[in-house]
Amino acid sequence: MNVAFLLSQLGVHAAAQFAERIAELDLTPPQTGLIRLVASEPGLSQQAVAARLGMPASRLVALVDGLDERGVVERRRNPQDRRLHALHLTKAGEELLGRIAVVGRAHEQALTEGLDAADHATLQRLLTVLAEKQGLTPGVHPGYRRI
Amino acid sequence: MNVAFLLSQLGVHAAAQFAERIAELDLTPPQTGLIRLVASEPGLSQQAVAARLGMPASRLVALVDGLDERGVVERRRNPQDRRLHALHLTKAGEELLGRIAVVGRAHEQALTEGLDAADHATLQRLLTVLAEKQGLTPGVHPGYRRI
DNA sequence: TATTGTTATACTCTATAACTATA
DNA sequence: TATAGTTATAGAGTATAACAATA
Phi and psi of B56, rounded to 5°? Predict the structure, then answer.
């Protein structure tokens, strides 16, 4: 089979497996992407977050609502411009992020268990080259656009 | 970035790019999967095809309807058991399959253009190992289940 | 009664666009 | 008037389950 099909097959499989794993934390992949983004760049407006995740702002609202009600994320109004809602993780959000990382490591391990260390490193290098060539933004999953 | 995330990112990207390309043939990825399967194993019943593609038979009906109306696929009733509809490609279907192959080669080329021949071969080998370990069926895309 | 294919229904998810509040 | 966030609406796509034909 060619590389393109293998990549697509494995990638969609990996995404589905990850979705199953984080479902145990009661999270969906877009929610996880939001949490990770807010963790790495706290204080972004909802418009900015929506743009980075590649989704309409209207869709982000429901995403933030759910995590806000669960006490994972919070909206902080900007006093200088009260239209803006800066997004931040709460303490519980930081803790959840830690659990997401644990799940992520287990996922990585399960997916690559057939490879020795050298092959693992080679694969990582080659995939990184492809991702750069394809113009993919590190850490931003194209599937957040529609899942 | 870890291998799992890179794979997922690249895989979903590759699937989206492929979907765009075959849209020029007025096809969706599930339709393409159906055409390929019928080409490689002509005469399967709709139930058998649905099982292999991992979708409910009720969903396959609409898929076959569309390709049937376009003269790409045809249902042949089995005289021994008139409940069964064996699926076959028409002449036009064979021709379309050829155009799909052309698109597939262009897609492969565009996706791997950053790699030299040795790296390309290495990547193909490593991905094949992973796909086998993960129990993925050659030629069957897990995304056909829901796109 | 069981199985194949089909149709109907009800549900989920989403983007678009209207709306509000602030500037 | 323009922008951030929100809500409403309408559409696409789907699985589930009921149904008809055949065994």
Answer: -65, 145
